[in-house]
Specification:
CATH class of the largest domain: Alpha Beta
Helix content: 10-25%
Shape: globular
Number of domains: 2
Largest sheet: 10 strands, mixed
Oligomer: single chain
CATH superfamily of the largest domain: Pseudouridine synthase I, catalytic domain, N-terminal subdomain
Radius of gyration: 19 Å
Structural class: alpha+beta
Number of helices: 5
Length: 252
């Protein structure tokens, strides 16, 4: 059966995460329901990345199978069915064995922080009205690229075979009144990005030292790291696949 993939963006504050959880309002539940309504048959999707409650996505990819080629206006029709909090952006044709999750080479996340109260950023970024040493943030971001085991930044009871991740990009930058942290890796552990951000902010506030930051990484113990930052400052920003894996059919 031919396989296709749909790229979506969504406002995470409207959902209980992305992965299907029965009849709860999740991103995947909405996509499955919308595609099933559109094609008048049960459609089950598989997503490239599982985002937690409150986490946003500028792109997330879901593959699914159809017995025949969809019409060119499928994105328009899909968006007419979906709520305003989700937008279908691109439709791809994929190989019969394509897997949106396991074929991904890397994913990139962005975390947004602001220090001056701004009602228009509520639910879109983390408000932290404390002085932050930006030089220290640059230092900790570089340190993370020296390591491959991130067990300290995986939430307890993470059911994975390995805690090895290869971080290829890790940097803080200024974006107007905001501070942005961008991290790209071949894979991420459950809660990892929020753990990286929260622990780095602790160092930047002077609560712990840079050496203590290294000790936390090397401890391989999630009770040593910090995870208290909210999900609404986090965005899934990019998913990378090998050239030729996907053929673009339609875009809006």
């Amino acid at each position: 059966m031919p396989r296709f993939a749909i790229e979506v963006m969504y406002d995470g504050t409207c959902f209980h995460g992305s992965q299907v959880q029965g009849d709860q309002m999740t991103v995947q539940y909405i996509i499955n329901k919308s595609l099933s309504t559109l094609f008048r048959q049960p459609i089950e999707t598989l997503g490239a990345s599982r985002t937690d409650e409150g986490v946003h996505a500028l792109c997330n990819l879901y593959h699914f199978d159809l017995p025949e080629e969809p019409t060119i206006d499928v994105l328009y029709k899909c968006n007419a069915i979906m709520p305003p909090s989700v937008s279908a952006r691109k439709l791809y044709r994929a190989s019969d064995t394509f897997n949106a999750r396991f074929d991904a080479l890397s994913r990139a996340y962005r975390y947004r922080v602001y220090q001056k109260k701004n009602p228009f950023l509520t639910g879109r970024a983390l408000y932290t009205p404390f002085p932050l040493n930006e030089d220290v943030l640059h230092e900790t971001a570089e340190i993370l690229k020296e390591y491959t085991n991130f067990e300290s930044f995986a939430k307890r009871n993470s059911q994975v075979k390995t805690f090895e991740c290869k971080i290829s990009e890790s940097e803080w930058s200024r974006a107007g009144e905001e501070l942005h942290y961008v991290v790209r890796a071949n894979r991420f552990l459950r809660g990892m990005v929020r753990g990286l951000v929260a622990t780095q902010l602790r160092v930047a506030r002077g609560n712990i030292t840079v050496q203590r930051f290294r000790d936390i990484i090397e401890a391989r113990d999630c009770t040593k790291a910090f995870f208290e930052v909210t999900g609404n400052g986090l965005y899934l920003e990019d998913i990378e696949y090998s050239p030729g894996k996907l053929e673009l059919i339609s875009t809006i």
